[in-house]
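Table 4 source record.
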Amino acid sequence: MADVNRGDRPLSPHLQIYRPQLTSITSILTRITGNALLLGALLIVWWFLAASTSAEYFAIADGVLTSWFGKLVMLGSLWALWYHFLAGLRHLYWDTGRGFDLPTAEKLGWGVVIGSVVLTVLTVIVI
């Protein structure tokens, strides 16, 4: 039977009125960085395959990866690697049944975000 009171019920929050929380943003970023890591890995595999194919083909692949755009992609991949690693550690901690209260979840979220940036900068400085 049709619901005749459909207009009287409140609507679910939509993206225009929903305020994203840090935990939801970090969860979405974990999925995005996982996919970005796959693309970065494909570029590295392409670079290795080009090195094993010929000097001319390697020059093309190396030119792409050492260009400003390639360096930007590799820097983003490095950040994604650290972010995904720290988010995985956070999930391992959550698997123990701890850290679900809001203050701890917020601290862990900021720890993942800030920690990934700091570790990326340290890696760039060291390498």
